[in-house]
Amino acid sequence: MEDDFEELVLKQACASQMKFISRLAVNTFGFFNKLPSNLSFLSYFMKFCIKPEVIFLLGTLIILICFYLQANLLDTNSFFNKISNTLRFKTKKVPFVISAAEKDSWDVRHKQSAAFAIQGRRNKMEDRFVLEENINSSTDVSLFAVFDGHGGEYAAQFAKDILIQNLYNKIIESRNLIKNPKQESSNELSSLDKDDLNCGEKHAADELQANVPLQRKLSARRTISKTDDDNANAIDSDILNKLKPQQKGYNMFNKQNVQSEPSPAPKSYEAKCYIKGKGIDFAKMITDEVLFADHKLVETTRKNSNVAGTTALIALIEGTKLTVANVGDSRGVMYDNKGRTIPLSFDHKPQSAREHKRIQEAGGFIAFKGVWRVSGILATSRALGDFPLKENNLVIANPDILQFELSDHKPQFIVLASDGLWDTFTNEEATAFIKDHLDEPHFGAKSITLQSYIRGSVDNISTIVIVFKNGKYEIASATKD
Fold first, then answer.
1. Which CATH number do you get for residue 447?
2. Alpha-carbon 83 to chain mean position
3. Is the N end or the C end of the chain the one with fewer CB atoms within 10 Å?
4. Does residue 31 sit within a domain?
5. CA dihedral sign, ordered 104, 110, 111, 113
6. Angle, vertex CA 470, rays to CA 468 and CA 474, nearest 5
7. Do 26 and 129 fall within a single domain?
8. What top-level branch of life does the organism fall under (predicted)?
């Protein structure tokens, strides 16, 4: 009985609503009936549009369209903000969010490359980046790098200051040897040939050392130099003094972990050992320098109980050759002239089959705490630093190296970024976004970084965009803001 009564009330309410709309329509029709004959078509059109059933159908259709678009938006902005942006209306919310993001930001602009980084929603900026076109203005080698620090900024700053400087030194020296080969006497040449042979012997000797840790066995190259003084990568004490390590440590690591016996130091070759014909073996050079820098970083942070670590994504361009080295979960992608998105690196995540197996074989485990973590702590399975996890090689610093012939791909641009960006963009979304913003001063690096912040990234975000003209990279001078 109650259901019938409610149904009757509903019918009467609908009928009353229809009567109201009809009366409104009649009054409106009266207005349109008074229109001049040449506008009489408006009268017929309005008579049709104001019919209750037409209004109901149109309203339902509009609601369904709005719901569909809202549910399928990739952006976190509302559908109505999208409409405002399309109509070039400015909303108050988005500029406010962008202004907050830009408050702590860093940028560098070159003629064909640019970088933009923000602290974002983190309390500290732990990312670092490097843009260096034509190292030493004479090598014809350009270097780009992203370091995503964790546990403090010390490790990322160390990598930027020391690892990069060591690479500069080796590249400059190797280039000089190629451009200006020494005119030696026959005896000196014989000695030089013997030294060159020793480059290979040193590699073999390293592989035969049973007690060499996994970190060194997996390296592309190792070295056994005569003395530490002979090492071309001696760390400048002035640089070290500028770096102020944080006196912090994980509570789960006891004093025994901190004072355990350090692993043997990997030592780098002389620059001549990286020369192959008239070129440089960048893959082996980067591998050696990354492992050397990692050992020095672990050695330094162990003394100060500093648990900082960092990823490393390094790209070297020489002519049409691109070499990309990756340690951790920063990522690089290339967009070629056919509109394809090509990965330049692959994330080192604990849950990946290869990394999970390696960690288990080292006696470790992974645990899920929001994301998969090594020993329930670190979300990346490879990094520089992180000394407590280096003791049993649970975390290693061995880089994966990929090399590309740019003339085969004819790239339009390359994107290198910390995982703060990749938390909110897929590879394809990132390249599509940059493609639409290449005409901007930062070639889209600034826009995509801020867009990632708007989408909700909670990490530091650093983005480098390298632009190619006709598939070639043109070296130019830099300007900073």
1. 3.60.40.10
2. 30
3. N
4. yes
5. negative
6. 45
7. no
8. Eukaryota
Average pLDDT over residues 10-15: 65
By DSSP bridging, strand 366-369 and strand 341-343 are: unpaired
Q: Is the pLDDT assigned to residue 331 strictly greater than 90?
A: yes
Compute the distance between CA of residue 331 and CA of residue 414 in angstroms, rounded to an integer. Answer: 11
Query: Using one digit for the tens of pLDDT, what is the confidence trace for 281-291?
Result: 999 999 999 99
Range of the domain at 29: 2-72
- Write the single-letter amino acid at 227: T
Of the candidates 342, 402, 415, the residue with the CA atom closest to the CA atom of residue 144: 415
For residue 126, CA distances in Å to 157, 245, 309 come to 8, 13, 10
| Partner residues linked to 79 by β-bridges | none
* Rounded-to-integer distance, Cα 301 and Cα 305, Å: 6
Identify which has the larger pLDDT, 276 or 471.
Answer: 276
Structure tokens at 387: 């000394």
d(CA 111, CA 294): 33
- C-alpha of 150 from chain center: 14
Mark whether 19 and 114 lie in a shared domain: no
Q: How far, in Å, CA of 466 to CA of 37, rounded?
A: 64
Tokens (6 digits) for 179: 């451009």
Non-local (6+) Cβ contacts of 447 within 8 A are 433, 437, 440
Structure tokens at 194: 């013997």
Which of 50, 72, 94 is the endpoint of a domain?
72
In terms of C-beta distances under 8 Å and separation of at least 24 residues, what long-range contacts does 302-306 make, across chains too? 302/258, 302/262, 302/387, 304/245, 304/246, 304/247, 305/247, 305/248, 305/249, 305/258, 306/151, 306/152, 306/154, 306/245, 306/246, 306/247, 306/248, 306/249, 306/387
The position carrying tokens 């490393």 is: 312
Enter the pTM of the model: 0.69
Q: Residue 449 in contact with residue 117, Cβ under 8 Å?
A: yes
Using a pLDDT cut of 90, give the percent of the chain over it: 44
Q: Are residues 59 and 109 in the same domain?
A: no
Q: What share of the chain is helix, strand, coil (3-state, %, to 5)?
A: 45, 20, 35
Q: What count of Cα atoms within 13 Å lies in the side-chain half-sphere of residue 197?
A: 6
Q: Per the structure block, which two tokens stand in for 156?
A: 């990322």
